[in-house]
């Protein structure tokens, strides 16, 4: 490099070059800054609307406001289902970052068993929409709340949320009829309007809670809140308050329900009591019961398995879904059919040698009393529950007419208004058998059906409904559980009410009532042990449903058979005869004779409803037991 | 060194009686522009930091220190700067090498040099000053406009530190250092033919650059080209900053009323993205005022560089001012979504340490070349 001295001229030339270049630079700077300003005009003026919308969407979140669930009362305004304040733990997955890690920390902080990890992970996914909190744990205790509060910084997306939760004060004996609410499952999401359930964690799963879900749930509200980038709510902008669910008043009397529960304690069975005039279901008991409160907060797998696999099937609603042969309780209905079809006159008699034989058939269809009742007319046939009489009648009627007439009493179909999951039972017919088994109908099968056995199955609810229709002289009212939904009274007439059962001669109803009253009070009445000291006119009919089919020559010996093969004890009754206020059906599974085991229970139910002052459960139980012993001494039967 | 400061002291004692801006080696107009921008920046910072006085105090304190540095540097005559340029350049380059070996990691890059208990700083910041000084010192000794040989020497001088900085990696700073050197060369009067050839070569080298980029740098470019492709990930920043600016409208949402910034949707809102806070809260009006202030500052700076009494001063001053412009343009450009995201703060406003000190030191140099009137003897 050859160093050169700069001359003054050089220096001036350089200054000139620099000036030119710097003026150019100043101009370029101006242009480029104008470009930036242009960019700002584009963003802030031209596209302003787009960005203001986007920024509002950023900061505002619409939060659902879950409505309070309607309460459920019994007819005396006693609370059956209420809402209890609890603290729940919720998680918003979007805010949690690593969900698995957050759940692990939770388990650590709350000292939960390790195996809860999968359960909680599963629950965290059970929600309707993104950015919606999923319910992890319900009903936190104070210590848990404190632990969460202290560790909150380690638990992003986790919130302790105050919420009202369902509580059933009378869980054990109300569980089947009320049903329960539980966390909304994937399945439930198919049948609901998810926007109305945003923020609601529970939904009616069974029973009344399920049937009246829409009314009980109410209408969700919304509020708009401002949140920061991490999703924390900072303030409320505005809100549309939720409409709370309607309160529900049931026709049930919880005292009667409790009594039924006490009377069936230790047994398996069901009681349904109906007010004949209104169709109001006064009691609907299924034993054994279960505590439905456990299902609200999420029952653990082990307890659930224990309930599900229990041989006594406590989860099974026997009253509405249990299917039993109605047995001899159908004899009054059969008699009415015979009269209406003109097959018998009340005074016609049948000779009972202790068995019935079809023409040209050696097989003997035995009466329950081996040596027979001799000559029996219609009333006596009902009173002593003679089988031969009804074999004869059934044979004359034929299965088609029999089946058609029993449908009028509601057998074979569910006619209840609002009993969730009520069974249809089974009213067999020639067509049914062909469709089901592709077989012809045998005349011998008509005989079994004629005494309420064979293929015939009915639910306790259907049995109670039928006896209630009978007590009403054939007038139908659909059985129902709701008395008042919100401000709306639920009262007959109801839509789709079946046609009334009509008899040519209305006087015939009186004959049947008399025959059934004789069951309780007649010297031969099968229920007379339970008919002692009646202070009102009671009518009843016993039934004993065979579980175990006996061979032709065998004799039933209760002591030798396993308990679960014992006959089912049935009893249907109503009272007072001249102005029926209550009709009841009782079934005790494997209880043995209906008049011996079921009748005392029915009597206690009627006493409780008709006489002033309901007895305590123990007192009624003692009384029922005395009648049971009395029946033993009297050797009644059906 | 010592006798230099003694001379400065004696001279200021002599001129004490007729104290004026010249004697202080300051320019009142530049000072006014700087203070206006800094004061406005502190107001925005208060809002961006979530009404935190801590940030504002720290920032103000930092500027006080930076002002002292500026004041001191303004007293140094350009002649001395020219003399020390080479020394300074070599020392800083060695520091960059040291950073490469023993530097401190932060945010995925090795940028910091720590002298334990004393100071922790980024040598690359110092290179922003050393680079234009050296190139200007070199070119001012040559016959201008520069020829091929000069250009090659300058490229070599530039290449070593830029390579070291890019290797840290620090794309933003290496770009600014490159710019400062290039501006010296351009202002020295590089012929347009050279410029055209170099620009052509630069464009041709683009693919090469792409393959030498770090993954995160490539991601930034891709995100810039299509921010919606990953709205919650790497596209988040640019979407949120555009939303902030756009939602501000003409008048803005008002001071401390910006929802994007106050509710923390805007990332890095007190550092690199602070201009989005301004855009959101003060709208187009606020943005225009700021850009005008910057424009006036740059124009004044260019005027001052023109008034320098030697080539070194002109080249150095002009380069510093134009580099400052690049700062502003790249930052506002990236925040408003016209440039890819590179880590360049908004000068004088973004919260941060070393950058503001170097900036003010640069302005100190500019004031020095403007106010020291004795022509440098050859």
Explained architecture:
- The complex is a heterodimer of chains A (638) and B (378).
- With 638 residues, chain A is α+β, with helices and mostly antiparallel strands.
- Chain A is 39% helix and 18% strand.
- Chain A folds into 3 domains: 18-60; 63-248, Penicillin-binding protein 2a (Domain 2) (Alpha-Beta Complex); 254-302 and 317-552 and 569-634, Beta-lactamase.
- The longest helix of chain A has 39 residues, at 8-46.
- The mean pLDDT of chain A is 86.
- Chain B has 2 domains: 25-66 and 227-373, no CATH class; 76-212, no CATH class.
- Chain B has helices at residues 2-14, 21-24, 28-48, 53-75, 78-102, 123-140, 148-166, 171-187, 192-212, 215-225, 236-248, 259-262, 274-306, 311-335, 354-371; strands spanning 104-106, 109-115, 119-121.
- A 3-stranded antiparallel beta sheet of chain B has the order 1-2-3.
- In chain B, strand 2 and strand 3 (119-121) form a beta hairpin.
- In chain B, helix 3 (28-48) packs antiparallel against helix 4 and helix 5 (78-102) packs across helix 7.
- Chain B is globular and about 55 Å long.
- Classes of the chains: A alpha+beta (638), B mainly alpha (378).
- The interface between A and B is large, with 45 and 51 residues.
- Chain A: InterPro entries: Beta-lactam/transpept, Beta-lactam/transpept-like, PBP_dimer, PBP_dimer_sf, PCN-bd_Tpept, Penicillin-binding_protein_2.
- Chain A: It is found in: Cell inner membrane; Cell membrane; Membrane.
| The CATH class of the largest domain in chain A | Alpha Beta
Total number of helical segments of chain B? 15
Rg for CA atoms of chain A = 37 Å
* Quaternary organisation of the protein chains: heterodimer
Radius of gyration of chain B using CA atoms only = 21 Å
CA(first)-CA(last) distance of chain B: 21 Å
Fraction of residues in β-strands of chain A: 15-25%
Label the structural class of chain A. Answer: alpha+beta
If strands are numbered along the chain, what order do they take across the biggest sheet of chain B? Answer: 1-2-3
Mean pLDDT of chain A: 86
Run of helices and strands of chain B:
HHHHHEEEHHHHHHHHHH
Mean pLDDT across residues of chain B: 85
Count of runs of 4 or more consecutive helical residues of chain A: 23
Overall shape of chain B: it is globular
Helix content estimate of chain B: over 70%
Number of domains of chain B: 2
Extract low-pLDDT stretches of chain A.
none
Distance linking N and C termini of chain A = 134 Å
Q: Give the low-confidence spans of chain B.
A: none
Largest sheet of chain B: 3 strands, antiparallel
Organism (chain A): Kushneria avicenniae
Function (chain A): Catalyzes cross-linking of the peptidoglycan cell wall.
Membrane topology (chain A): Single-pass membrane protein
Subcellular location (chain A): Cell inner membrane; Cell membrane; Membrane
